[in-house]
Design brief:
Elements: E1 2-5, E2 9-13, H1 17-39, E3 42-46, H2 53-60, E4 69-73, E5 75-77, H3 87-96, E6 103-104, H4 114-127, E7 133-136, H5 154-159, E8 164-168, E9 180-184, H6 186-190, E10 195-200, H7 202-214, H8 223-226, E11 233-238
Parallel strand pairs: 2-11, 3-4, 3-7, 4-6, 7-10, 10-11
Antiparallel strand pairs: 1-2, 5-9, 8-9
Helix pairs in contact: 1-2, 2-3
Length: 239
């Protein structure tokens, strides 16, 4: 493992998947343990996808007081939390099923319209303990959370003064068959004490480098996480 530090990001390179998984899980556990020690409780926001699932499984094995941990989501597809394609389902099965006592707040509330779910998410974020940790991924198009380049709602989400926003990514290929999303905004990202970006493969590193060079948040929305105030974004990359 080696790290390259700049004023914008800390890039941590790992030799293999096992090192990457263990190092990120332990870093997350250390952040949570410190937050619990200082404030009695900790809140973190997780992303879905296949990339972080092994890390969540190892994290759940760490000796923490999970009953003192609240778990939310960085974003969600407009699906029932019981749907296997939802981020909620992945987080439940890879992490919550093993971290006994941890409390989970999904973004989608079954039977409620998306605007009401976003309103509820914003109220909870505003009245909850600030997240000490948010875990993010990035697509090959440069999106993070559900901030998709080219989406009709991207500018509104980028300019929002609320933690969460609804976003319609119709026409964005990477959104696949789930164009309607609830996503953290740059405002929401800015409130997190620590931001981790998890990347795998050469292409993802090249996209990150292109984003840093362009500084165009509309083309590379991952810059919303990079440019957020506070601690530099920590990027954990494995080939």
């Amino acid at each position: 493992m080696n790290a390259a530090v700049s004023d914008r990001i800390t890039l941590v390179r790992h030799a293999n998947d096992e090192d990457w998984t263990d190092a990120v899980a332990k870093e997350m556990a250390n952040v949570l343990a410190q937050e619990i020690q200082q404030h009695g409780r900790a809140r973190m926001l997780l992303s879905g996808g296949t990339t972080p699932a092994p890390i969540y499984e190892v994290l759940a094995e760490q000796p923490l007081e999970w009953a003192r941990v609240e778990v939310g989501l960085a974003d969600e597809r407009w699906l029932s939390p019981q749907d296997k394609d939802s981020n909620a389902w992945l987080v439940r099965n890879s992490f919550l099923a093993h971290a006994e006592g941890a409390h989970f707040d999904p973004l989608v509330r079954v039977g409620r319209p998306i605007a009401e779910c976003v309103h509820t998410a914003n109220l909870m974020a505003q009245h909850s303990q600030p997240a000490c940790l948010v875990v993010l991924g990035m697509g090959n198009d440069g999106h993070t959370a559900s901030l998709f380049p080219g989406s009709r709602d991207l500018e509104r989400a980028l300019q929002s003064n609320q933690p969460y926003a609804a976003l319609d990514a119709t026409g964005c290929p990477v959104a696949n068959t789930w164009p309607l999303r609830i996503t953290l905004t740059p405002h929401g990202l800015a409130t997190a004490g620590n931001r981790l970006l998890l990347l795998r493969g050469k292409q993802k590193l090249e996209v990150l480098e292109a984003a840093l060079a362009s500084n165009d948040v509309h083309r590379y929305p991952v810059l919303a996480a990079i440019n957020a105030p506070g601690n530099p974004l920590r990027v954990h990359w494995v080939p």
